[in-house]
Amino acid sequence: MESSLYSSSKDAFLDIVDPDEYVQLDRVSTIYQALKDSINKPLKMILLYGKPGTGKSMFLTKLHKDLSRSKIVRLYETPILDESEFYKTLAQDIFSTKYNGELNFTQFMKIVKTSPIDSIPIVLLDEAQLYSDILMEKIRLLSDTRTIKFVITLHKTEKEDLIAKEHFQTRIWESIELENASATELKIYIQKKLMKANCFDSASMFSGKNINLIHKLTSGNYRDTNKLVYTLFDLYETYEQNNRLASLNTNHISNKLVEMSAIHTGLINA
Amino acid sequence: MLNTVNLEKRWFRYKVKSYIPHFIIAISAISIGAATFILLNPKYDNYDQTKFSEEKVTKQEVEIKSSPAPKIAPPASVNAEIVIIKALDESADIKIQSDEDIKLKPSLNFMQNMRISSSPFYAGDMFQKENAQRDDKKINKKAPKKILAPEAKIEEVVLNDKLIENEIVEKSQKKEQISVITIDRRETTDDIKNVIKRFKVNNNPALSLFVAKKYYELGDYAQAYNYALITNQINRDIEASWIIFTKSLVKLNKRDQAIQTLKDYIESSSSNTARILLEEIQSGKFK
User: A270 vs B11: CB contact, 8 Å cut-off?
Assistant: First the structure.
């Protein structure tokens, strides 16, 4: 049924961070492997940075899923802004120590040293640019003790670059940049996503022109692509429900609908 | 559910907006192409240059230098004094600064310049009136022989070279400001110029009569009058010259003077042609 086709195709592009939905692209696979190798090295800290929507969160999620089988890994997708709360959360999650009352850096270091852990725990901090400078300095001190390994993600903006320089420039042994997808990668990304959702018909509807247009509109940003393609199939579904699908060529994706989707999602200011 | 109608409208506006720059670029490209084509196409080149030269023509310089006036020896039978005819010399330098592409229109401006330099009688209205009055008196009083009296006027009119040159310069300057000077390439005028040149060399009345006839044919009755008069001064027995002389007078609205002149001439020569012409003038057939 065509209605289920468009609906399931649409759902494949829901903007959620699910490691099961992770799409392996060649370049991304290489980066991911490099990141995994870096974690096995005696590095103090690993910085993962890139523009919003380049897949940093998905990367961390995937890494968390893969490493959690063999290592002590904790992923914090939302920043813990309070310093005491941050220490208490780490003490409980990593060292299974519940602490009542305020916990400061010295007290936390005592917990770390007294806890019997064989391997160095890995803490994945997403959206690290939201942490305060004081807390970031404490994170740096913690990583210097080599008792906890931090993998943090930063948005690549001028401000975040400055933070990275100030706090991590001399301490980060590995920094990995995530970039937007090329047109070819985007085509693979879209088609793999659709095929994962068993939407083979809709995957074959994308022509090179469609992909180029989508890439032009989204600049290869995965988040924008997800939004755009989701809206695109939403439009197809709407046309179908309004019995106007006959006016469209269903063998190929209509660039008109791609542009209408871009207008709806704000990628085109019309 | 998405509002597809609204989205389609927004999409249409967006497409129209997105095509505007292309449209402007296309129009610009076409305009540039057309301009280039016009500039490179010789047809349009001529058009432009002609148009452009029209502005230039108003500033054409015309320098007229008169050569020393040849003296016409008076015939033995005529008690005329030395007459100097200052006519446009063939060697007059006419410098015209204009493009080769100027379209030359037939014009008698060239002849007007000649008239300025050569015509003692019709150079100006005042002058013409004075001449007419004097001619009337002399023709009425005397026989055909005395009809040649205007020659005395010629003598008066012959001014020194400087004065005439000044007059020419002034008039030519006025013409520069007012009208476009064009060059006649009519063979008739070339003929007249050649004949005048030859006439200045040998003072042959046949030549001056030829010039008078040609001017009459061209409608330049003042010059026809002048050259007929000069012919009469050289030889007063040439009937054709008197005919042209009186015809020119009629054309110059001096009908009475023409009739009187013809009557005087008929008295002395009994010319049938003159008589017929007189009748025609009197009856109004010849105007």
Answer: yes
